[in-house]
Every structure is written in structure tokens, then in C-alpha cells.
Write a structure and sequence with these properties.
Elements lengths: L4 E6 L7 H11 L5 E6 L5 H7 L4 E4 L4 H7 L2 E2 L1 H6 L4 E5 L2 E5 L2 H11 L7 E5 L3 H13 L3 E6 L2 H13 L3 E6 L9 E4 L9 H9 L3 E4 L8 H4 L5 E3 L1 H17 L9 H12 L1
Parallel strand pairs: 1-2, 1-3, 4-6, 7-8, 7-10, 8-9, 10-11, 11-12
Antiparallel strand pairs: 3-5, 5-6
Helix pairs in contact: 1-10, 1-11, 5-6, 5-10, 6-7, 10-11
Amino acid sequence: MTTHRLEVWGDPIGHSRSPVLHAAAYRTLGLDWLFTRREVPLGRFDRALADASVRGLAVTYPLKQRAHDAAPWRDQRAAVTGAANTLLPTEEGLRAYNTDVGGIVRALDELDLAASRTVRIVGAGATTISAVAALAELGVAQVEVAARRPEQAAAAADVGTGLGLSARGVSFDAVARPVDLTIATLPGGAELAPDVTDRLAANGGVLFDVAYSPWPSALASAWPAPAHRGLGMLLHQAVLQVRIFLTGNVDEPLPDEPRVVSAMRDALG
């Protein structure tokens, strides 16, 4: 394991802003650390991980569940969601973290959306589960998960029920009740059928779309209420990753953290 190299893995990965964010953080902290991106398809993840020689890894789609499974130790958020976006090699073994949950919590708080009482999540992937866990931490009253396949929506809602939420899963065709906030967890560039988009937008409240490229997303373009892209989530989950890579403790603030966060935010443009 080398001291100064870190990477982000995914497929595709060329759009990732993580190198820009992390470079700004380490520069502000006075650290000569190199953070680069690497395309790693799901089928090559295990071999790439076995050969990796880095201080830490960030992982994105479609590797989050595999990253969770690869580590014998997981933080509570990774254990609850079954997904990890951060891997830290240690002398005791690989440690897995999910900083997406904290990133969503902090982003919603920053946008004054953390007090939303009713929320709909659109999608059914790993980020959906992280959003469910984030809403449980925020104490949301009711959560509806909407997806093309009702069984996937129901599975995500079951995670929320297990965390004490009043949650249900529905197909896109069954969306009806109005909500204060919609969280879209679809991949960037994903498009829904026009009738589905209209149904979601008609009673969806404010939109928080985790996608940030391309922007506006197809959903945001059709949204009549305010729409926010996912750069806040990207920023704050990266701050938590930097904490992990620096000290191994996601709960320990960085030295002069407000200045680091400001530099990372400026790097996003």
C-alpha cells in the first residue's frame, strides 16, 4: 500500500468529479496526494482489488454492492444499505464505508429540505437504499419508493420499514399521493416515459436529483417546482471520504474543515 495514491473506480467513470474534489481537499490540507479515476467493470472488480496498491478507494456505479461484500468490516451505514462507496485498506483488513448516506443528509440540510415530512424516491438501485437510510436518520414521516418494477420498489421500501420508517413501494403506474420532496436516484442521462415523468412531476414537490451530469436531467427539465442537482451530495460524501482517508474516522472533522469544504465547493464551479 502506497502513502499518496488514491483512486475512484466505476464503469463508466470519465464523468466523475471526484478527482477534482479530492485534489482541492488535499491541496488545502497541504498534502501531496494523487487521486485519479479508473474504469473498472463489475466483472473485473475482484481482480483489480486484489492487485490494488493505494491508500484508499472511492467506488461508484456499478461497484457499490461488490465493494460492500469485499470487506470483512463495514460501518453501520454500509451494513444497513448493503452498499459501500469507500474502501480503506488497513493492517487489520479492508474496511468499507457508505458516505452516500451522510452526503444526502448533509445536502438536504444545506438546501433546507431536511424537514420534509413526505418523500418519494424514484429508482431502486444502491443509491435508493442510501436515500432511504438517510431519510430514516432525518426522521421523515412517510416514504414512497417508485420504480419500474414493483418488486424492486418493495424491497427498497422494506429496508425503510426495518429502519422504522412508514414506507411503501409502488410501480410508476401507481404513483398518486402528493409529497413534499422527490429524490431521484436514476443514473445521469436516464429518461422516463413522458406519462411517467408527468405523473411524478404533477405531485412531487421539490425535486432533489442525485444526477449532476448532464444537467438539467430529463426529469428536472420537466419539473414545475424547484429542482436541485446532486452536486451537494457529491460534495458532502467526498468530505466524509477525505476524513476516512486521512484518519480512518468518518466522524472526526478535518483540520479547518470549513475551509476545506469551501475549496472543494469552489472546485466544482
